[in-house]
Amino acid sequence: MKGVNLILSAAALVLALSLPSWAQTRTLPTQTVTLSGTVETIDLDKRMVNIKTPDGKFETIDVPPGAKRFDELKVGDKVSITYNNTVSARLKPPGEPPVNTATGATTAGQGERPGGTASQERVMTATITGIDKSASSITFTGPNGWKYSRRVIDPTVLDKVKVGDQVDITWDTNVAVAVQ
């Protein structure tokens, strides 16, 4: 699924909030995306599925390699996918070591039809590498060269941080897939 884009979008929302005190962890409300429809095409080699939604639109889903029973999915199957994402951010105190962890779990559908759940928690320390008050934007750099810039809706947030500050960003995600 478009998990990376959803995660980055959710992380950007953290920055868009008015944060009265960066000393505390700020958590956004859980973002839930639900998709249901009919399987129209399946590419087993690329692990991609096209789903036609009830309003006639098509959504392409990337199926991770860990998804069991993918080969049992058939064109015409009715599917329902629910994706939940919760993001929190915390300004790190000076001297606290950086983090870069990911944990997860999956369960395969035990019934007659394929399906299952997957969950992941990702925690990363990102460093503020740029603040542009005239554009009301902030830039982060994280592990493995990860870079992200975002316009900040509340410019007073930029007065509470400086280049070099570190922020821990935590993503909790889970996906449930049901095939009827």
Concise account of the structure shown:
With 180 residues, this protein is mainly β. It contains 1 helix and 10 strands, in the order H-E-E-E-E-E-E-E-E-E-E. The protein has one domain.
Which key features would you list for this structure?
8% helix; mainly beta; 180 residues; ten-stranded antiparallel beta sheet; single chain; disordered N terminus; elongated; 1 helix
Structure, described:
With 180 residues, the protein is mainly beta. It has one domain. Helices cover 8% and strands 50% of the residues. It contains 1 helix and 10 strands, in the order H-E-E-E-E-E-E-E-E-E-E. It has one helix at 3-16; strands at residues 26-27, 31-43, 48-52, 58-62, 78-91, 100-108, 115-132, 137-141, 147-151, 166-179. Strands 1, 2, 3, 4, 5, 6, 7, 8, 9 and 10 form a 10-stranded antiparallel beta sheet that branches. A hairpin with a 5-residue loop joins strand 8 and strand 9.
Helix and strand topology:
Elements: H1 3-16, E1 26-27, E2 31-43, E3 48-52, E4 58-62, E5 78-91, E6 100-108, E7 115-132, E8 137-141, E9 147-151, E10 166-179
Antiparallel strand pairs: 1-5, 2-3, 2-5, 3-4, 5-10, 6-7, 7-8, 7-10, 8-9
Number of domains: 1
**What does the largest sheet look like?**
10 strands, antiparallel
Helix content: under 10%
Indicate the low-confidence ranges by residue numbers.
Answer: 1-22
